[in-house]
Amino acid sequence: MAPHNDIVLFHYQFSPFAKRVVWYLTLRGIEYAQCLQPVYLPREDINALGVKYRRIPIMSIGRDIYCDTRLILQKLEEKFPHGALGASQPEQKAIEKLLESWTVDGGMFIRAAQTIPLEMPLLKDPKFTKDREDYSGRSWSQQDVKNLQPEGITHVRDGFEFLEKWLLADGRQWILKTEKPSLADIEAIWPFHWVLSLKSLPPTVVSKEKYPKVYAWIDRFNAAIASAKSSAPKPATLKGAEAVKHVMQADFAEPEGQVDVNDPLGLKKGQDVESWPVDSGFKHHDRGRLVSITPQEVVLASQSKVGGREIRIHHPRWNFRTRAVGTLGTKL
Q1: pLDDT single digits (tens) 168-182
Q2: Alpha carbons 39 and 127: distance in angstroms, whole number
Q3: CATH topology for the 90-223 domain
Q4: Cα 10-11-14 angle, rounded to 5 deg
Q5: Is the C or the N end of the chain the one with fewer CB within 10 Å?
């Protein structure tokens, strides 16, 4: 049964991006339901919603569908402000946003992904490697993955160096010297937490002895998550048809919004547009009627494939492209 707040998280459990959202919901004790998805396409449940966006996770609150973890976390901060994990002071907020950029857009996750061990069973599954080639736009052959590993390990080591010798150097427990993990800790920790779970880093390069402060920080974070999980509501797990039905029967979670008349794209409310990420998953475009556009997000109205009701798909603006349907543009 879905929670009263209508939150449904569509994800698969070892997605490092999904963990960002799961950790946040757990630390906040926010009730939610989950609909577990396949590791690779097709994802029929998401397709039934009328969403083309191919990355995981997505989060629905009613018939509003939020794509990209940056936007998802932003929306959760806004909708549940009491006890929010985000920084309130401008200087701390700047650090939080810089860490988000460093790990998501600045290449740290991409470098961590280059260290995936060749023995990983999924790398022997041609469906998975073909899917990831569609996702990333690069080869996922065994040899090409192997060739990228030294480069990835070098850059991940640099990340450990930054955390150990600069960000955590003064012995602080949490990034912003808070009493418990904040959003800044989630933004910084997730690719390092993930890469250590892969056991893909040579101990001669990255180890607890070389980076004791980073390892201790990750251990504290794991303990904080375990403690929060013991008292947080257990997420309900919905089957695909059940999740889609719940979304389709719900109301919208937020008002329609407006189109920023000063936006440089010059789009008009009600215009048919398409929107998609430009860094990965860029072959999959959402299309619909433009509902609103702000400096932070674009919202499209589309029809679900089940029930035919309207949904609203929310994309962030950063590293996403939006244009009127039928206009000339770069073919991706």
Answers
A1: 999 999 999 999 999
A2: 10
A3: Glutathione S-transferase Yfyf (Class Pi); Chain A, domain 2 (1.20.1050)
A4: 165
A5: N
